[in-house]
């Protein structure tokens, strides 16, 4: 059901029941209900949070068509997942859901009749009889690394405010929730957003939570509020629109309901919100390297590759590797344990008027020759310092990332995109399954060639659409473009539904794929029924993160984040009141009835 069209003024905030399976074999101090669903002790909680936070914020729905150094990404995800699992005292559980919900859809042929275990966690610390279920969707990442969202983040905040049960639910094909024995191209066919949405609806209709088996907490009797961030934010919006009877409300944090094929605009947030001196220097560096790589002087190409000891990398892989600077905007965060310094260090280096790195001083003559080749015959002093500092900063980054231990690769062979997601075994990280989702439905292929004429390029023009999409035909044998209409038909930039909130970050690179995209919905009003909130200075779903119990100084969530979270509590309470009134019940205790 579509609500009435929104009014004026964007609002920006400033300052038969199945039985659940046995728990997974994770470390646990006891089998009591308290240890199963209550919080771990403070010291363990802080270790767990730091481990999970060590996963860069940029790993969430990073455009993998252009992920800098994908093998390193996979290696880091695997090591942090293992460390977090070793640290947590909270067991996970599995619930059986159908492998194939749509036997009439030819996309999923040959069909399957079986079930598979969908992993989840619960926290009943704040639950009171009659309270809602606050469900956090893990999206395109293992749920292990989303645990802080129910320990201290938005899941805890909403559960504490409403007497709710916090639930963290994994997405099929991620973490340990696999419906197939491997990730061969044929076995990827059951990975679609529609199947995952149906998993979630099936779960809430049939679940019996461990330790609360005496209560009927299915969606038939209990209001469910779903929160998702990034891809899971779009998932939350779709869930509320497609399954409105099962979800009383949903919050889309940095959601991306508008699928875009050529996603050149990913770096437009940097153009608008990173300091102009850094943006201009980045554009200048891009033009210089493109002049060399797209030119006819192969000796000059060998020279610039030799600066980084990457002579054997193909030109497109080389250009791809150099674009780590502005791409790191997504990894900036208000929490010092999560915030990454890459962007600040990069900008400080390339905007300095003097060379920083002693190790690049001998490159002066070569740099001046390359500048002349790129058309810079005057003002070489400032350009020379900029390029020398770019070389030094990029060398440092590459040196930190240049060992792919899991693939037994060293040096530049680790940096190539080619062959990076060929592994079909399970379990594995998010890289292969999310890439498949981009090839089939979600796109977001970041390119340099898509940059409009007259716009200073922030991405190399060697990063073509063919390069960005190479994994689709090479790995998955998918020649066609993604079925973007399967998502966009629900609303895209104008996505709207009752009791559905959109909360976005002002500086988020993914803002351009959502309802707060620049140039869209500038007069859309925020209401209790359809909150429309923009976090001032915020980046990627900042509101999903909460302060730790012992937080001090800048570890405490800033005012702009706290104001949004307070507003989320307010409208969720209003939604729950409305949900009960629709059913003719005013006492929440009449729900969650004992069986």
Which terms summarize this structure?
595 residues; alpha/beta; 11 strands; disordered C terminus; globular; hydrolase; 9-stranded mixed beta sheet; glycoprotein; disordered N terminus; carboxypeptidase; protease; two-stranded antiparallel sheet; single chain; Peptidase_S28
Describe this entry's structure for a reader:
It comes from Emericellopsis atlantica. This is Serine carboxypeptidase S28-domain-containing protein. One of its GO terms (molecular function) is dipeptidyl-peptidase activity. Belongs to the peptidase S28 family. The protein is built from 19 helices and 11 strands. The chain has 595 residues and is α/β, with parallel strands linked by helices. It has a 9-stranded mixed beta sheet with strand order 1-11-10-7-6-4-5-3-2, sandwiched between helices. Strands 8-9 form a two-stranded antiparallel ribbon. The two termini are 33 Å apart. The N terminus and C terminus are likely disordered.
